[in-house]
Queue: 2 jobs
Job 1
Amino acid sequence: MTCQEIFARLSEYIEFDLPPDACREIELHLAACPPCIEFTESLRRTVELCRGYRPAELPAPLAREARDRLEAAYRDMLAARAKPGNR
Amino acid sequence: MRPEDETELARRLIAGDPVAFDRFVDHFRAKIFQYSWLMCGHREDAEEVAQDTLLKVFESFAQLREPERVRPWVFRIARNACLMKRRKSVYAPARELSLDELMPARDGEGEGRLQIADWSRLPDAQALDSELHDALGRAIAALPEIYRSVILLRDLEELSTEETAQILDIAEPAVKMRLHRARLAVRQTLDEHLRSGRQ
């Protein structure tokens, strides 16, 4: 396997989403290729950072009228479910 | 909130628990707002998508057959609400990302050393300083929409490949391909940020 072929499958590799044979081939390559190890680690860190990322922006507080509309829809749903034959 | 807590919340909501209503609204409103903010970049649209999605969720809650799938179900509705806005995203224009452009450069010709920053200096996600947090946000925002939509659902929302494929109406191999390229592109932007000495 070349560095380029490894490169194309790294997301599946770090998520254990590859068949065992393909995984072994990648590990053989990594054992002899420090730059690919370094690259794999940087991709793994990228995924960790993305998973922990939340934008700083938050919605404005929910206006009374908007909340009332949601609650009315919720109550209608509960009422519809309570009718015989709808559960 | 963990998916199992969301499942429990959905069950309590169906059972008519009024406390669950407020918790559900607070939790999913923030999540949907942030998702649509990252999809379209318009605060006003993101607020409207959050409200429209929650209304639709409550109107059709009886259709949620499996409470353990509440997160993908809500995001499917949110994605459709985003599409309804149809306003052009302020973020990156549509284009394909090729693997070649996402490969790290090498020093010199041929088999020279890969140009990669020292990632070991990076703190974990919770300890990111505001500069790196902003760089990460810019890297995600810079992704073309077809890649951004996948990385938001798979990595930020931690939905499965199958759930993401269903939400976006694309095949699972396409989810995997787009996710990989999205991650590589974000990695590349962060790598440039780190090598520029700003960290």
Note: The mean pLDDT of chain B is 88.
Job 2
Amino acid sequence: MDTKKHYAPGSHPDLPPPPGTIGIVGWLYKNLFSSVGNSILSVVTILFLYWLVTASAGWFVLDAVVDASSRKECKATNSGACWAVIFKRIGQFVYGFYPQEERWRPDTAFIFLIVAVAPLLYPNLPFRRQLFWFSAVYPAVAYFLICGGIFGLPEVGTNKFGGFMLTMIVGVTGIGASLPIGIALALGRQSRLLSVRVISIAFIEFMRGVPLITLLFVASTMLNYFLPPGTTFNLLLRVLIMVTFFASAYIAEVIRGGIQAIPKGQYEAAAAMGLNYWQTTMLVTLPQAMKISIPGIVNTFIGLYKDTTLVVVIGLLDPLGIGRAALADAKWNGLSTETYLFVALFFFVSCFAMSRYSLWLEHRLNTEHK
Amino acid sequence: MLLQVIVIAAVFGSFGWLISNLVTNFAALNKNFGFDFLFQPAGYDINQRLIEYTNRSTHIRAAVVGLLNTALVAIVGIVLATILGVILGIIRLSNNWLARNVAYWYIEFSRNVPILLHILLWHGIIINTMPHPKKAIAVGDFLFLSNRGLYLPQPIAEVGIAALYLAIVAAFAFVFFFSRYAKKLQSETGRQLPVSMINFIVLISLPLLAFLASGSPVSLDLPALKGFNFRGGMHLMPEFVALTFALSIYTAAFIAEIVRAGILAIHKGQKEAAEALGLRPKRVMSLVILPQARRVIIPPLTSQYLNLTKNSSLAIAIGYMDLVATLGGITLNQTGREIETMLLVMGIYLIISLSISVAMNWYNSSVKLVDR
């Protein structure tokens, strides 16, 4: 008997895909073993990962010590990492030498920071307009909260600032202040006025041409020579100004790239509509240029945030400075790997978050057809 | 016009104000401005020097030693970072899921951690966790890694080395002229020669033949453990190793992303059109994708090279004697000439970066797509 069913042409039901192209096997084949070279690469990578995991798991976790009072005690307990150096000094790593009983103030400022920044970052946030008012006054709020001196808050000197708190202060201030200056410089560089253009170019090229560390040296040692005799002003403020100038030069270049990427037709159309320079700039140039340059701006911000570590070279106690101070202590001498890895983790988490945000935004702003 | 005058007046005014303050301050401190200190004996030692230097040499010589150290770390770092970065960038585009993701996480980890931290971390690892010279990690009998740094065999030129140099120059000259000839031949007759194959063979075999024919004029000075440390061979200081390592793995992550973005930036249609014309995959890559990707890749690549050079100034944190550590560090502290030394340091970095950016602008305008 003929068991084969007969189908009218075109009515045969779909057959399942051939085995080996779907499911785990199919995925493995397609992604790891599609050719001889690919298979070798996969095997080598797997062996490498196996070695990495087995070699580091012991040191990082299994043989690590979290509670000890000195390096000696650590080494006597177990052979792995000595995380005790971090746990014993975590307060300093976060706040520097900010007085213990006042530490709620930077905490509050940090929470306010999230509230102030959220409406800038997320366009769909509820009550966005109202929150903008808070963002506008936030710098003053944060300043008085952290430095004190009014409303009965005891004053705290900036020399007490340190740790991740200092990183946040330098980073956030630098980011906030450098964006408007950067936009101004970018417009200045494209300006039709020769003097404005020359000055902008000179400023940008000078700032981009020298290492930040030399600028910080200037801020810390030489600035007094250039001010009227007897003026002193705060080291942290000087550093903030230098960092802001440095970052704004880079932002200016990113935005210039954005401005140059706008097709000529846009300007011609604006001119045909009778818009003047400022109208063209505010309504046509900047909105488009900013959109194009957002990834570059965020990258510059990440760079600035990472560059805040350089303040350690002129003696400010950012997390790296706190770490080095801990290592200079005879009790913890030699635990550099643990200390620096901990600080590295902090920077990785914050910078990675920023770069993810930039990707998300880029995706959102991408109105082009794909 | 009025605006221009105001701007110029404001800028000159503030400069004048700063300089008059400087003059007043200098007068109050009884200091004078001048560069004569550069010709006084430096009086300090530099542990890594590429030219002759003793502590009786002048400050200007110390600065040159520092500048050469900066150049050394920058060049070695750029070469290593480019090799590693290009490999990583290509792996990022591979269709192997595992390798692609390992490269991705490597890139994310190294570029999201500040460079200063990289430098300190590697320096700490070498100084604190590497074994003493007696228990050094040895690769074969010629490479030793210990907490005193890295020891490598040092090639020593002997009589007859000129033949080898000559052969290398000749090989490169051949490659240059042969490539030009092959290109001309192709554009005139359409005939294609296996250029890259022939070039490769000549580049390898010509120096090798010269090397053997002149009786191997290079001998190796191997490092050997004598007493508490190694003698002989080439010694790379821990600071140099840490700095080069940190700079190259940090910059490699950026280069990898640049390479990847450059290749991805080429519109899909270009590849499809090339395939539709019947070009083989290798030719699609070398004739269509890469020439266009190059235009996207080279400008950011150069600025990464520049960044690496500027980042090498962080050497001061671990005591590597580069330009900032010699001229802007010890010389500054010994002579008290903050303004002069910092002006020189900044000036030198400025000259380096401006010349690179002039070259870059020239390149950009030469490859720019022509608009109306």
Note: Residues 39-127+238-328+349-365 of chain B form a domain with the MetI-like fold fold (CATH 1.10.3720.10).
